[in-house]
Every structure is written in structure tokens, then in C-alpha cells.
Amino acid sequence: MSVYDFSARTIRGEERSMSDYRGKVLLIVNTASECGFTPQYKGLQELYEKYRDAGLEILGFPCNQFGGQEPGDEAAIAGFCETNFGVTFPLFAKVDVNGDDAHPLFKYLTKQAPGILGTRSIKWNFTKFLVDREGNVVTRFASTDKPEDLERDIQKYLG
After folding, report:
1. Would residue 63 show up in a list of annotated catalytic residues for this protein?
2. Largest CA distance in the chain
3. pTM, whole model, 2 decimals?
């Protein structure tokens, strides 16, 4: 099993298979528009622009499970990200990342890359999962890890 076995609805409402990203290095992030970490959208977009042609895809998954910090609908979220941060990387429909209703992709990610002390739950917005070109989850980064601090790890997997 790999991330390629999952699919998700895009922010525009289309179903997208993760296998569409086969052969790419993926950075999968749970996001929110009203969070103290929201400015990380800027750093994520900069990484995307810098490494997209080398094979990086950043996949943003809005989530409202942490402090109600993603209250808008998909249209509002897309507009906010485009207007305020110039986001062009793929965004997906709002999902739960913890609990019984967690999106299956996030259940898989947290199983493959548990947090500190082996915890599976995601602690906050902007938790990031790095996936290699074969679809293997290789590491998990905390909300506090800034996008620019991930560059060395990303470069390693871009080869």
C-alpha cells in the first residue's frame, strides 16, 4: 500500500487520484486560513515555485478540526489562498485529519509516520508529510517546522 491507493476531492470538486502524482515528491499539508501558522502558505508556495519543475508537488488539505480555524467553504478557502498568498499548488476539499471521520489518506499518513512518542493523531494545522517518488511516507514535520527548513529534506528526495 502507498499514498497512490487513495483519492480525494479537489477544492474545485473533482475527484483526484493520488496516483496522478506518481513519480513526484509530495509534501502533504493540513492547512487552515485563520491560524497562527497560516503565513506558511507563503513559504510553501515559494518551495513549490522553486522545485515544481524538479518534481515536487505540494498538496494542501484544509481542516477545521483545530480551533475552528478553517470555517469557510471551499470557494472561500481557494479565494483566500490565491488572493493572500498567490497559492498555485493543488488544494483539496476540507477534510478531517483525526478521529473516526478522518480522511483515509490521513489515517494512512499518520500510521506510516507517527508523531512524537508514536502518537498517530495530528496535533495542529500545518503538519506536513514528505512522500518520496515511490509513494512512501518518509518523514513527518510539525506545525512549527517552517517550509524553508524542509528544503534539505526535499532536495534529498528530489535527487
Report:
1. no
2. 38
3. 0.96
Give the domain CATH number at 14.
3.40.30.10
Among the listed residues 35, 47, 130, 137, the single catalytic one is 35
| Residue 86 CB contacts under 8 Å (≥ 6 apart), including other chains | 45
List, in sequence order, the alpha helices (H) in the chain.
40-51, 74-85, 104-112, 151-158
Show the domain range for 82: 3-158
Pairing of strands 56-62, 7-9: unpaired
Burial string for 28-63 (b: 16+ CB within 10 Å, else e) reads: bbbbbbebebbebbebbbebbeebeeebbbbbbbbb
Is residue 33 a contact partner of residue 100, using CB atoms and an 8 Å limit?
A: no
Per-residue pLDDT in tens (0 to 9) along the chain, 159 residues: 899 999 999 999 999 999 999 999 999 999 999 998 999 999 999 999 999 999 999 999 999 999 999 999 999 999 999 999 999 999 999 999 999 999 999 999 999 987 776 777 899 999 999 999 999 999 999 999 999 999 999 999 998
Give me the number of domains the chain comprises.
1
How many whole angstroms separate alpha carbon 89 and alpha carbon 51?
11
